[in-house]
Amino acid sequence: MVDVREAAKVLAQARRVVVFTGAGISAESGVPTFRDALTGLWERYDPQALATPQAFEDDPDLVWGWYEWRRTVISGVRPNPGHEAVATVEARAPRCAVVTQNVDDLHERAGSAAPLHLHGSLFAPRCASCARPAPLTGGAEPAEGRRLAPPRCEHCSGPVRPGVVWFGEALPEPVLEAAVQEATECDVLLTIGTSGLVYPAAEIPKVAAMFGATVIQVNPQPTPLDAVAGINLHGAAATVLPALVTAAWG
Ligand code: BJW
Ligand code: ZN
Asked: What is the CATH number of domain 32-76+126-161?
């Protein structure tokens, strides 16, 4: 509680805030984190192996089925008090950028205006051949653990792929640049629910610390970002963040 009060004081005084989120913020909405072992019918697959261009090339139906199943799961859940507290920080801080590694839309649904999606979105499929955006398909509800053939592009008949960033692919340059710029200029960076293992995203809290910001971390587990966090709030985002916001702004 002492740490929450200290963090709230720093946050309430900040002119520029960056909120940097990972899968942990969506965990209490019922979305499994990326590095949680897959459960149920997906449990024999390794998410790190599925989230690659090679996996899509080798077995597009498997990879598309997995992503469509995840999109279905996310469409059926709701933002939690952690996402809502982030939207409150955005509303109360003089300037605040939300930078997320998540491919879900729970920040938007909680009221965050324009989160920067470093790793793309489950809701923006595109053609794997010509890169044109493709419409979101409805109807064909994928069953858990089932392959599903990707739709074909209406322009070139190429396979449609999820609009996410896979291992070995470049992050969207304008998004990464904007996030790094915000990190260099903020007074406080709040890092929430990320393992800090995936680069270049994991550089963002480090850049903020290097440029003099106070880094506040919210995570029930230790992470490599402990090294740059001036304040560590050990706990679940949906509990810690509402307490932090109340302590900062009442
Ligand atoms: C809670 C909680 C609760 C639980 N409350 N908290 C430098 C060094 C080493 C390697 C590299 C490097 N630079 C690049 C690399 C390679 C690679 C990489 O980083 N590999 C590492 C794994 C070693 N990076 C890349 O390949 C990147 N591309 C690249 O570098 O391109 C270079 C290039 C340049 C120019 C041209 C071409 C190429 C791309 C990385 C893309 C990552 N994409 C994914 C998949 C997206 C789609 C999908 O979701 O399927 O993004 S991987 C996955 O990890 C996903 C996530 O956004 C990302 C981060 O995961 P996150 O959010 O941290 O989740 P978890 O599960 O790891 O952690 C959850 C945390 O929550 C835990 O800490 C829990 O304790 C906590 N938690 N409950 C709060 N209730
Ligand atoms: Zn195409």
From this structure: 3.30.1600.10
